[in-house]
Amino acid sequence: MTWVQAMLLAVLQGASELFPISSLGHTVLVPALLHWQFDRRDPTFLAFVVALHFGTALALIAFYRADWIRIVRALTASVVRGRLSDDPSERLGWLLVVGTVPVALLGVFLEAPVRAFFGSSALVATFLICNGFVMFGGEALRRRAVDATAATPLARLPWADGAKIGLAQAAALLPGISRSGSSIAAGLLLRLDHEDAARYSFLLATPVIFAASALEVPKLLAPAASGVLVQAIVGGVVAAIVAYASVAFLTRWFHSHDLRPFGWYCLIFGAVCLALALAKVIT
Predict the structure, then answer these.
(1) Do residues 27 and 49 touch, judged by C-beta distance below 8 A?
(2) CA 105, 109, 110, 112 torsion: positive or negative?
(3) Count of CB atoms within 10 A of residue 240's CB?
(4) pLDDT tens, 77-109?
(5) Which of 25, 86, 137, 152 sits at a 20 to 30 Å CA gap from 264?
(6) CB atoms within 10 A of CB 39
(7) What is the pTM of this model?
């Protein structure tokens, strides 16, 4: 992988991780469209991609630093006290714990088979098209189920619903399915409004990405990955800067917009890539 390729992937990761368009899907499809010659199934490539995700997680911590300070303090007090209180930050913290468990467990068991999907542009493009339908389906079902005045505040989200949103984001283990998109859509179906669904999704991303980083990033320290390590570090910084700008934009976007524009993008881009893959123009 050249430096130009690595930095372009870093910018792509920072922009597409939080937008509901699947950063992993784009990490597979864009190099295929540009005919970059490297093995996407190589373990060091996945570790490089996870290092870029780590940069995204740092950006999320920086953006939501006030929230995370309150959450960590409240969780610590809860553990010391040995019981729950009515502190909204404490409840949100435990909701994040509950939501992290499903994807953490599935990620451990499915990491190896999922890696094989990185070698098939056709399969990834198909998942990206499915992601578009998830965006439209989430919006349509929410409008049918509830009007804006009946939205559930995030502070009152039931524990089981927090776990369901965490389970929904586990679908993003498949490259082409967006983690933020699937979790925001699940939040909408569970009666959160767009702002709270996005906020919970972005907060939930942080422990999930850190868990993945703990598993994958150490592979960059192996002798075979020595040439990728520096690229991963610089790329992580670039991804963090772009991701910070992305989350700042999206938090404003969801004040008055929904998921449908992202759904159209996924359908169109996914269909174009699938057609090219079936025609053997890309692999």
Answers:
(1) yes
(2) positive
(3) 22
(4) 999 988 888 889 999 999 999 998 887 777 666
(5) 152
(6) 11
(7) 0.86
